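The aim of this short unit is practical: by the end, you should be able to scan a pair of folded records and say something sensible about each. We start with the first protein, listed as its amino acid sequence and then its structure tokens.
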Amino acid sequence: MKAITVTQLNNQIKSILESHFEIVLVEGEVSKVIYHSSGHLYFTLKDEKSAINCAMWRSNLARMRFKLKEGDKVYVYGAVNLYVPRGEYKVIATSIEPSGIGALQLAFERLKKELKALGYFDENKKKPLPKFPKRIALITSATGAALQDMLRIAKKRWLLSEFYLFNTLVQGEGAAEDIAKNIKKADNFRFEDGKGFDLIIIGRGGGSKEDLWAFNEKVVADAIYEATTPLISAVGHEVDYLISDFVADKRAATPSNAMEIALPDKNELLMGIDEMLRNFEYKFLHILQKKEKQLMHLKELFEVNSIENRFNELKKEINFLKEQFDVGIKNVLDKKENETKNLLALFKINSPLKKIKQYEEEIGFLNKNFVYLTNEVLNKKEKEVDLLKNAFESLNPKKREKEGFGEIIKNGRRISLSKIEIDDIFFIENTSVSIKVKALDKKES
């Protein structure tokens, strides 16, 4: 972790404190009151458990309606500030009011409690404000100082927004209804392009609780809650918290502050653009340097792998392969020459004429042997035929048959006479006659 200086640390704490506690309203008991010769007021605000230092500068102190003294219970409205050289933080008050509750305050607290229970103050229902609003509806009095304050701040901050005034009664009888009516009118208004307002701002300058009471009425709260257009409530001074502030999508401490919230600061944007240009130039230069290094590397690679170098390498490789090829071809030719000589020698030994002569001799021998063996076989077969002929003649049934003799056939088989039983049916046959008979009697001899 890189170390930072004490001043850097205090500056970082100052940035965090002042951004998170830009506006605070603190109640407590006053002690250690000092009206300094410089015109500034210094005091401590405490409760039962802790205390915090406070200050009010001369410009704001001049607007106070009472003199602060020890033991006063007050509301302090301001912002948290850190004094970097000593690392001390305090509340810089812009206004101080005595605490205590009256009839209007009681009505305010009751309505606030009721609307909170209905979900009018839920943060998840609040609409985000547009970053660059083009058309803004101003619901305020055309003759009030609030309108001029808002237009003056708008002219300083941003010139690209269009403002449309809805002249509105902001105090007295009928003011609440007029405010609610114009909120609904602005919310439903549509231009020729079919679009409505990007933002609605309701506001008026400071005044007594009675003067500001129209913005504490439920009819106004209902109109703000039902509006679909993002809405800023900018009523009274910094210490004035109204029902419209709690229901609105955003509360502004004053009408002027509403413009500071609603509009981008052209100077900040220009500074941001300058910063982006610087970042762009830095990053572009960084990319150029990086690409230059890559280009140098590619140049080195190109030189190493240039066509000329590659050609020389390929030429060497071709020469080497040519030498290898010549050696290989010579070896193959020598080998084939030796094989040819061997084949020629074998051919001479095994010439076709010599083979033909050998085959003719073998054929002549086989021919003589075939004639001899054929005669031998024929003579042998003639003798076998004669023997078979004689045997056939001797075994011919017609020649063997004698007068009065025949064969006994039973069930298709030749059997001896001794196997015939009484009542058996059988046949007596010779070569020319078959007689079916039945054994009536049997005598053994």
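Turning to the second protein, read its sequence before its tokens, just as you did above.
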Amino acid sequence: MFSHGWPLSSDAWESQMFFLASHGYRCIAHDRRGHGRSSQPWNGNDMDNYADDLAELVNALDLKGATMIGHSTGGGEVTSYIGRHGTKRVAKAVLMGAVPPIMLKTAAYPEGLPLEVFDGFRAAYLADRSQFFLDVASGPFFGFNRPGAKVSQGLISSWWRQGMQCGHKNGYDCIKAFSETDFTEDLKKFDVPTLIIHGDDDQIVPIKNSAPLSAKLVKNSTLKIYPGGTHSLGDTSKDQLNADLLAFLKA
């Protein structure tokens, strides 16, 4: 089961789903509340409700032995799901470019980003969210702002399109959800094999306050760092990611 980042829809996982489905795996992706083709409720745009919505879907489909794969905000959603609902239906987990333990700078996590960074996100989002999504996709998300980067206008346009699908209020609220939620205690509740993947040039979720700290909190976890890897490993390191996911599923 795949859980995407903000402000994307389940379309963000299409390459990985195609690859794994081609190897015989059943792949399921959902649109988080307010994102993609989901409904756009005014309230409840927080990690607890994201996790509970996911639990409703998992229970409705009666999934058993699932591998949950979460990217960015979706990694927080998977973490919150396990913290709130356990692993009765979960066999393995993957956190990729994920926001846990917490993105925000706190006394417990002094290497986090200051609140002013996320206030800036909110201000830019409200001022002109279309341009904001375009700027993020054209620069740090895919690493297209790095010297020598091979820029894909198709990826930029796709990311912008998916961003513009999300509800205005839902997208705004999600900035607080992905940046200020502390997943420390949820990570301690993991009791299934977990693969933690992160790019060391991730400009959206900096590695120094994310993956290595999560790996220390999650029992039976494996940390895999992609040298030069961006935030969007599913696009910029697609072949390596697909191979790593398949190997982890088969293990």
